[in-house]
Structures are given as C-alpha cells and as structure tokens.
C-alpha cells in the first residue's frame, strides 16, 4: 500500500508545479519572417515537380499497404470476370437479334 501511495503522490503535481508547467503564449512573428515566407520565382517553378514527387512517393506508400491475391484467388477472379462478360455478351446479342427482327418486320 505504501508504494501505491507514493506513486499516487508522485503522479499528481502540486499547485505550484501546475502553474510552472502552463504553456506560455507564443510570441507574435516579426514582419521580417512574413516577408521571408513569400514564395519566390524558384519556388513557383519547382512547385509542380515537388507535387509530382509527393504523388509518386504516396503511390509507393499505398502499394506497400496493398495485399495482392495469390494465384488461386487471381484465377477465380479472372474466371468470374470472363463469365460475366460472356453472359453480358449473350444478353446484348439476344437484344440485338430481337430488335433487328422487330425493325425488319416493321420496315420490310
């Protein structure tokens, strides 16, 4: 129990310590610093290249996060896409044949 009491006392700062640890307000920046922050011609010319470099770096970070499928899963997904395309092709071909027949009877 004594160890726990000591830890509790050590964890709680006293009122004097709390006053000392309060953060001080930040000083206002000088006008000279504001002028230095204006982008120069070099900065304006380099901006597209910097953005492109950031884009490439972010792309590689995303690729590292990706999980690629194994061979078996890849074949299953490929088969699903091929079957869907085949079913859709048959559906469109049937619609085309139907409407061709309808227009041939109307016009012909």
What does this 3D model show about the protein?
The protein is an all-alpha fold. The chain is 78% helix and 0% strand.
Quick synopsis:
The protein has 108 residues and is mainly alpha-helical. The protein has helices at residues 2-11, 15-20, 31-36, 41-65, 71-107.
What is the rounded distance between the termini?
103 Å
Strand content: under 5%
What's the Cα radius of gyration?
Answer: 35 Å
Task: Using the alpha-carbon principal axes, give the shape.
Answer: elongated
Supply the helix-strand structural class.
mainly alpha
How do the helices and strands follow one another from N- to C-terminus?
HHHHH
Q: Can you tag this structure with a few keywords?
A:
108 residues, elongated
Task: Set out the fold topology.
Layout: H1 2-11, H2 15-20, H3 31-36, H4 41-65, H5 71-107
């Amino acid at each position: 129990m004594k160890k726990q009491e000591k830890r509790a006392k050590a964890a709680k700062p006293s009122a004097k310590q709390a006053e000392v640890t309060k953060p001080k307000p930040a000083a206002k920046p000088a006008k000279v610093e504001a002028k230095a922050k204006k982008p120069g011609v070099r900065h304006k010319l380099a901006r597209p290249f910097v953005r492109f470099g950031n884009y490439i770096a972010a792309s590689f970070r995303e690729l590292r996060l990706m999980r690629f499928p194994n061979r078996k899963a890849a074949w299953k997904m490929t088969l699903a896409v091929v079957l869907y395309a085949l079913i859709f092709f048959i559906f469109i071909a049937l619609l085309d044949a139907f409407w061709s027949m309808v227009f041939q009877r109307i016009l012909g």
